[in-house]
Design goal:
globular, 4-stranded mixed sheet, 17% helix, alpha/beta, 2,3-Dihydroxybiphenyl 1,2-Dioxygenase, domain 1
Length: 131
């Protein structure tokens, strides 16, 4: 089973969407014609999307973090330096993981809403969980 989509509320749909598009290379997905609110769908591949939608007065959780709520995505390790450069240029805070792992990953706090996103080496997808 995989997830279909997740939602990211924001007061700034375009700014949030553009940051994620630019930094992570996600593309916009087609929208249904009947959305009653401002929304952008970002295509993560494999039929999975993130729906960035307008929520008046939205504030991110104070529990965003590695050991709190965050979003984790796979990305090619070879692109990590460029992704980090784009994130820093956009005002994001980029930082290493607190917990060590046998695969590369890093976190960033995006500057618009304060969401925390973990970026994991996509080679990790091939690892089998230990029993």
């Amino acid at each position: 089973m995989s997830f279909a989509h997740l939602t990211l509320p924001t007061t700034e749909v375009e700014r949030t969407s553009r940051l994620l598009e630019h930094a992570l290379g996600w593309k916009r997905a087609p929208l249904p014609p009947n959305s009653p609110i401002e929304v952008v769908w970002l295509d993560l591949g494999r039929g999975q999307t993130i729906h960035v939608f307008h929520a008046p007065g939205f504030k991110a959780s104070p529990f965003e973090g590695e050991f709190g709520r965050h979003i984790a995505v796979f990305h090619p390790l070879a692109e990590f330096p460029e992704v980090k450069r784009r994130l820093l240029a956009a005002g994001a805070t980029v930082y290493p993981a607190e917990r060590s792992t046998p695969f590369e990953r890093f976190f960033f706090r995006e500057p618009i809403n304060g969401y925390v996103i973990e970026v994991i080496d996509s080679a990790r997808e091939g690892l089998v969980a230990e029993k």
